[in-house]
Write a structure and sequence with these properties.
Chain lengths: 209, 209
Amino acid sequence: MAINLSASSYLVLGLIGLRGPSSSYQLKRAVERSIGYFWPFPHSQLYVEPKRLAEAGLLAESTENEGRRRRTYSLTPQGREALRAWLGDPDTEVFQVRNEAELKLFFSELGDEGTVERLADAQVRYHQGRLEEFQKMLERLVDVPVLEKRVAPLVLGVRIEEACLSFWRDVRETGVRGALGRTGFLGGDAEFLAGNTEFLGGNEGRHPG
Amino acid sequence: MAINLSASSYLVLGLIGLRGPSSSYQLKRAVERSIGYFWPFPHSQLYVEPKRLAEAGLLAESTENEGRRRRTYSLTPQGREALRAWLGDPDTEVFQVRNEAELKLFFSELGDEGTVERLADAQVRYHQGRLEEFQKMLERLVDVPVLEKRVAPLVLGVRIEEACLSFWRDVRETGVRGALGRTGFLGGDAEFLAGNTEFLGGNEGRHPG
DNA sequence: CAGTGATAGTCCAGAATGGATGGTACAGTT
DNA sequence: AACTGTACCATCCATTCTGGACTATCACTG
């Protein structure tokens, strides 16, 4: 009965809470146009997860008995309670940034000449595009007071995109070292490594064997 | 033979490229202390993935024939080439931010009184902690020129953490509306919604059925 | 030599991922 | 009325990923 509730679970519960009774397809659409910009949930998940939640008693399922026979899910009292409990807990899972560009930059010394430059260039364009997109959405939504909370991810999104954009601009113009400088690190005394080489893929302090 | 290479694959190839021949355990350690702060790769993956890559000919495997019988992996020419090709391509997968706090904020109107306040408070503390941690690491590493590239994720990390921290501070002090204002959106003409309600969990334009 | 903690690796159930596939409903033609 | 394009709606599947539980080795200490 007591199943594990993941982020997908709460996404489904929460969206149904906001939207009222919804089909998986509607959830899929809602996700595509909101949280999916930052945290992509594949649509197949939005078909599987409500089923799980219904089995666990957190959602009620009703099927049209004509036409398309759509499945609609709505919150049960237990579902609403689970949602409430989750929202009441201010602790959160670790904040994750999955950024392939970061990986490429990290490993860039293993690539050809110009790897960093081309990467930075592409990233500037990429984040510029996202930033504009988010800003346009925000402009359209900013004046509807009732939507205040729901616009929040976009606001954070804009700020994060601004941070990325400025980072990659710095990298493009002055390399990682330049970006470092503009982050407020200009180099103090050249204290050497202090046993933290592992961060960089170097050798451990202790010898293996 | 031609297997799909995921982010995990390139992580493994890249780390072995930087470190030289490595065991899964060493990779695990390296990840924990670097990229794992932003993008957690569970250690079991770092045992499975090298095996796959070895089968595909991108890594060579050698096992100690005494004592612990550690498995060490090293890049084959094909592995190095795959890495080079990946680094040479400036395109990247979508930039993802998986942030449970954002979900909670999005759904906060379904929670009890004070949900946003408690959440913002906890988030400020959380991001403050991370920021300090990253800054300390940077301070220790900033003066080792050879590590320039490898320190890059930390630099981006600091900037993103700064963005999050300022966002959550604004939310704590003045609510989402305040954060909005400080993001440069102060409200123009109250153009109403323009059919974009779906972003917010509202109804679609077209009617179901 | 028992105890402790770092090192090293395996295994597994369950969840997530990302397509591929295959329908239905309807609007606008022609 | 047939045709066509496009949303709409849903299921399935092969891989991967995830998070732990579990086992065992080794180095050091008292």
